[in-house]
Amino acid sequence: MDVAIKVADLAKRYGDLAAVDGVSFEVKTGEFFGILGPNGAGKTTTLEIVEGLREPDSGEVGLLGMRPWPRNPELAMRIGVQLQSSAFFDRLTAREQLRTFAELYGVSSARADEMLEVVGLTDKARTRIEKLSGGQAQRLSIACALVHDPELVFLDEPTAALDPQARRNLWDLLRRVNSDGRTVVLTTHHMDEAESLCDRVAIMDSGRVLTIDSPAKLVRDLHAATHISISSGFLTVEQAAGVAGAEAHVEDDGLDLTFTTHDPARILTALAERSALDGLRVRGATLEDVFLELTGREYRA
């Protein structure tokens, strides 16, 4: 596949802070690529440099075969950018806002109206921005990023602060955006979002890329334990310890009895033989486990 983005040894400092410190990665054409990291990891700064919104101190960026900095007007028609927070004109309706963006790109009003339908906002065309829900405003923001039909789209935490239903609804839209042939680059704090949407992810911390691979491969390589839970009361902790053996850890919180093990088949068989499968839940490793293993568990403000 062709390479849509090539980043080599990118660096950006603010005084003593190395916001981006030697970042390198490539994004293939048509790929859904995620950039993950805790607060202050350098995700947004990296994205802004790649988009041509910020000048790097050093390093190279190739965007669709061109340099994004100094600002390249030729790239403006080929990329779409949805920022963490979008500044709309509150007194405009959704249709007026989108048509304004279309005018800036020299795109017809008909195309703007078509995009309202694409993002499911036709029935909100006459609604002022200030009256839209969070999910509707995010959909409009994405429509503005897509109105000129870009081949490469950047999405910076598009589902932040949305409720679970609005998030899942927006995921369906983002899948359609990518399935139309567009390359999508996403930053997010939601590990389930990245696991569901992304072909590959880069995990960043302290301005550096720690690892890049598909979510499934990162999870497999973690070799994490499996958590098997049943309802409390079917086995005592002592009985459960006998089932678990020396290899597994057992914990009973009064609601669930949980085995943490690297040999789930043996424990599941033993539980089945004792007819102790009530409330059974089995959880393997997830991308969140990989993320915490690499970046640590301390809170980042």
Automatic annotation (TrEMBL):
Alphabetized GO MF terms: ATP binding; ATP hydrolysis activity
Chief location bin: membrane
Bilayer topology annotation: Peripheral membrane protein
GO annotation terms (biological process): response to antibiotic
Xref: PROSITE patterns: ABC_TRANSPORTER_1, ABC_TRANSPORTER_2
Domain ABC transporter: 5-231
InterPro entries documented for this protein: AAA+_ATPase (IPR003593), ABC_transporter-like_ATP-bd (IPR003439), ABC_transporter-like_CS (IPR017871), ABC_transporter_ATP-binding (IPR050763), P-loop_NTPase (IPR027417)
GO CC list: plasma membrane
Keyword vocabulary terms for this entry: Antibiotic resistance, ATP-binding, Cell membrane, Membrane, Nucleotide-binding, Translocase, Transport
Keyword set includes Magnesium: no
Location(s) in or outside the cell: Cell membrane
Domain of life: Bacteria
PANTHER family, per database record: ABC TRANSPORTER ATP-BINDING PROTEIN, ABC TRANSPORTER ATP-BINDING PROTEIN NATA
Family: Belongs to the ABC transporter superfamily.
Protein name, UniProt field: ABC-2 type transport system ATP-binding protein
Species annotation: Stackebrandtia albiflava
Native organism taxonomy: Bacteria, Bacillati, Actinomycetota, Actinomycetes, Glycomycetales
